[in-house]
Amino acid sequence: MSTASSRSDRRISPVFLGIAAVTAVTGWAVWTDFAADARIAVFLFVTSAWIVSLCLHEYAHARTALHSGDISIGAKGYLTLNPLKYTHALLSIVLPVIFVIMGGIGLPGGAVFIERSRIRGRWRHSLISAAGPLTNLLFAAVCTAPFWLGLLDGVPLVFRFALAFLALLQVTAAILNFLPVPGLDGYGVIEPWLSRKFRAQVEPFAPFGLLAVFGILFIPEVNRAFFEGIDAILGGLGISDLETYCGQNLYRFWTTRDEFCQSFVS
């Protein structure tokens, strides 16, 4: 009985498989220009792929916690990749998608509850926190590899733009989530090494860290400097700011269409 339960705790959820299927189908529709409205297809492709990356981000936290001593992870459903099993569905899925829609910023939300008392060793605690954004870095590497390897010759520009925007989301997610701000994984990495007094003083601010970062990024000077840095990183990986711009413009199908970007959409 316990063996069957253990297997079901780790079986990939149909919900996740459904989201992955949407990613594959809409990605194919963008690639082949099959969709009646390419902008909606780009929106669905990037959004579903972003949700897949959110699920993998949280799975990395959960899997690392399991191997670090928190055996309660499986029973909570975190190993099934089902986003509906997360502690806060709003923070985990809805809020990050809203961030993308509003500002083109990749910010994962808090999701899996880890019983830290079961885990021994500061290095393990740090690794659990680092596992999520490291997954975003891996996802970013997958998205950017076709660009810096020169594998996109002859590929439809609309798909190229969509992939460039998805890469931007993954890079921003990794960088922002590694910030040492309470509530983000970057703080979780260094938290085990801080004094108890300092941690107690900072703890009340943790629920607001994510929103604070998003709010600060709305300051024009900060936003400009941040995205100039992101453009420099992506430029070094073969992705131009024009490609990410057009990717975002096509993604935001409800906004005014850029004539240059639109010229690539039939």
Automatic annotation (TrEMBL):
<dbReference type="InterPro" id="IPR044537">
    <property type="entry name" value="Rip2-like"/>
</dbReference>
<keyword id="KW-0645">Protease</keyword>
<feature type="transmembrane region" description="Helical">
    <location>
        <begin position="126"/>
        <end position="151"/>
    </location>
</feature>
<dbReference type="GO" id="GO:0008233">
    <property type="term" value="F:peptidase activity"/>
</dbReference>
<keyword id="KW-0479">Metal-binding</keyword>
<dbReference type="InterPro" id="IPR052348">
    <property type="entry name" value="Metallopeptidase_M50B"/>
</dbReference>
<keyword id="KW-1133">Transmembrane helix</keyword>
<keyword id="KW-0862">Zinc</keyword>
<dbReference type="GO" id="GO:0006508">
    <property type="term" value="P:proteolysis"/>
</dbReference>
<feature type="transmembrane region" description="Helical">
    <location>
        <begin position="89"/>
        <end position="114"/>
    </location>
</feature>
<keyword id="KW-0482">Metalloprotease</keyword>
<keyword id="KW-1003">Cell membrane</keyword>
<keyword id="KW-0378">Hydrolase</keyword>
<keyword id="KW-0812">Transmembrane</keyword>
<feature type="transmembrane region" description="Helical">
    <location>
        <begin position="12"/>
        <end position="31"/>
    </location>
</feature>
<protein>
    <submittedName>
        <fullName>Site-2 protease family protein</fullName>
    </submittedName>
</protein>
<feature type="transmembrane region" description="Helical">
    <location>
        <begin position="200"/>
        <end position="219"/>
    </location>
</feature>
<feature type="transmembrane region" description="Helical">
    <location>
        <begin position="157"/>
        <end position="179"/>
    </location>
</feature>
<comment type="similarity">
    <text>Belongs to the peptidase M50B family.</text>
</comment>
<keyword id="KW-0472">Membrane</keyword>
